[in-house]
Write a structure and sequence with these properties.
Layout (H helix, E strand, L loop, with lengths): L7 H11 L23 H12 L7 H10 L4 H11 L3 H9 L17 H6 L3 H17 L15 H11 L8 H9 L4 H8 L6 H9 L3 H12 L12 H20 L25 H31 L6 H16 L4 H11 L1
Helix pairs in contact: 3-14, 4-14, 7-13, 10-13, 14-15, 15-16
Length: 351
C-alpha cells in the first residue's frame, strides 16, 4: 500500500486473497471469512481483521460485563484467567469491570470513499449498488428467475455490452459512458485516474469499493476460479466486476453532479493508508481478550468436570476405556487448571 505505482494484477490478486471465497450454496459447507489471517495467532488475527475491515469479532464490552453479573462468566474463572495472564489481579479486574473505554471501531476500509458523502453529500453506493446487484443476479441466475437472462454462452462484459447495443434502454444514465462501455475504450487505471486522481490511492480505493459488498465480490471471485460450482456455468471475473462498477460510478457521478465534481483525492488531506500495516495492541484489546478467555473457560471447566465425573461414576459402562482415557485427561487438566502451566496446556488442547 505504500507504493505509488499501481500494479493492477497485484491488487486484483490481493483482493481475491482477502475476499471471502463464497461458493455456490449447492457446495457450501463452511468458509472461514478470516482465512487471510489464519497464519496469525488467534487474538492478533481477529483484532487486525476488525481494524482493517470493521468485522465484529467479539461481544461488546457491556455484554461481557452483563454475562459476568448474571453468572454466565464465573468469578472464579475470571480470577484464574487474570492471574495466569496478567498477575496484577486487582488492577486488571478494575479495568474489566469498571473502566470506561472508547469502544467505537474505526476500520481502515471505507475511509477514502466516504469522502463522496463528506464532500459532495452523495451516497455513491446507493446510486450504484441496487442496479449492479440486480444485473449480477440476472446474469448468475440458476433458473430461479421467472425470466432468464437474454444473452447466453457469453462472458459477463460481452453479455452486458450486447444488451447495450441492442436495447432501447440502457444501464447507464449518460451517453458518453454508454459509448465508452460499448467501444471497450477503458481500463481500470484510466477509470481510476478519472474518479480517484492520484495513483498512490488506487489500491485503497479498490479495497474500499469491493469490500463495500464483499459477499458479492467474493462470490464472483469464487465463480471465476471454480465455474463448475454453478450448475449453469457462467463466465465472470473479478476484473470485469471492478471495471463495470467503476463505469457505473463514473456514470452516477456525471449524472448527479454534472461537472461539479473533481477526482476524489483532490479533497484528501491524509496520505494513502497502508491497510495491512500491523495493528498495535491496546489496553482495551487486552481487556476483551481476558473477557473472552473467561467466557470460554466458564464452559470448558464444566465440560471437563463432567467428563471426569462420567469416567469415575460409571466405570463398567460400555466404552469405559474411552471414557477412562478422557477422564484421565480431564482429571489432569482440572487438577492443574489453577496453575499457569495447566491453564496453557488446557487451552492448547481445547483450541
Amino acid at each position: 500500500m505504500t507504493k505509488t505505482a499501481f500494479d493492477e494484477s497485484h491488487v486484483l490478486h490481493e483482493l481475491k486473497h482477502n475476499l471471502p471465497s463464497q461458493q455456490a450454496l449447492k457446495d457450501f459447507i463452511h468458509h472461514n471469512s478470516l482465512h487471510a489471517f489464519q497464519h496469525m495467532k488467534f487474538y492478533d488475527a481477529i483484532f487486525k481483521a476488525s481494524k482493517i475491515f470493521g468485522f465484529q469479532v467479539h461481544l461488546q464490552l457491556g455484554e461481557y460485563r452483563e454475562l459476568y453479573k448474571t453468572g454466565r462468566i464465573r468469578a472464579d474463572v475470571l480470577q484464574m484467567v487474570v492471574a495466569n495472564k496478567k498477575g496484577d489481579v486487582d488492577g486488571w479486574k478494575r479495568n474489566l469491570l469498571d473502566k470506561e473505554y472508547d469502544t467505537i471501531n474505526h476500520p481502515r476500509i471505507g475511509q477514502l470513499r466516504r469522502l463522496w458523502k463528506d464532500v459532495y453529500h452523495l451516497d455513491l453506493d446507493n446510486k450504484v449498488h441496487p442496479a449492479l446487484f440486480r444485473i449480477l443476479c440476472a446474469f448468475l441466475d440458476q433458473g430461479i428467475s421467472i425470466k432468464s437472462f437474454p444473452i447466453t454462452n457469453k462472458p459477463f462484459i460481452e453479455s452486458i455490452r450486447e444488451l447495450e447495443r441492442k436495447s432501447h434502454v440502457s444501464f447507464f444514465k449518460t451517453k458518453p459512458i454508454k459509448k465508452k462501455f460499448i467501444a471497450g475504450d477503458y481500463s481500470i487505471p484510466e477509470l481510476l485516474k478519472t474518479i480517484v486522481g492520484k495513483e498512490e490511492y488506487f489500491e485503497q480505493y479498490l479495497f474500499d469499493q469491493q469490500f463495500a459488498h464483499h459477499g458479492w465480490s467474493g462470490f464472483v471471485s469464487a465463480v471465476e476460479d471454480n465455474p463448475q460450482t454453478l450448475l449453469d456455468r457462467k463466465s465472470i471475473t473479478l476484473k470485469e466486476l471492478v471495471e463495470f462498477e467503476l463505469l457505473m460510478e463514473l456514470d452516477a457521478l456525471n449524472a448527479n453532479l454534472k461537472k461539479g465534481w473533481q477526482p476524489l483525492t483532490t479533497h484528501s488531506v491524509t496520505p494513502p493508508l497502508d491497510l495491512f500495516a500491523d495493528v498495535k495492541r491496546t489496553e482495551f484489546s487486552e481487556v476483551i481478550e481476558l473477557w473472552q478467555d473467561a467466557f470460554e473457560w466458564s464452559y470448558y471447566d464444566s465440560v471437563l468436570k463432567g467428563i471426569l465425573m462420567a469416567g469415575t461414576a460409571h466405570p463398567d459402562l460400555p466404552g469405559r476405556k474411552a471414557i477412562g482415557t478422557q477422564s484421565l485427561l480431564a482429571r489432569e487438566l482440572v487438577k492443574d487448571s489453577t496453575s499457569s502451566k495447566g491453564f496453557l496446556l488446557s487451552s492448547h488442547l481445547l483450541h
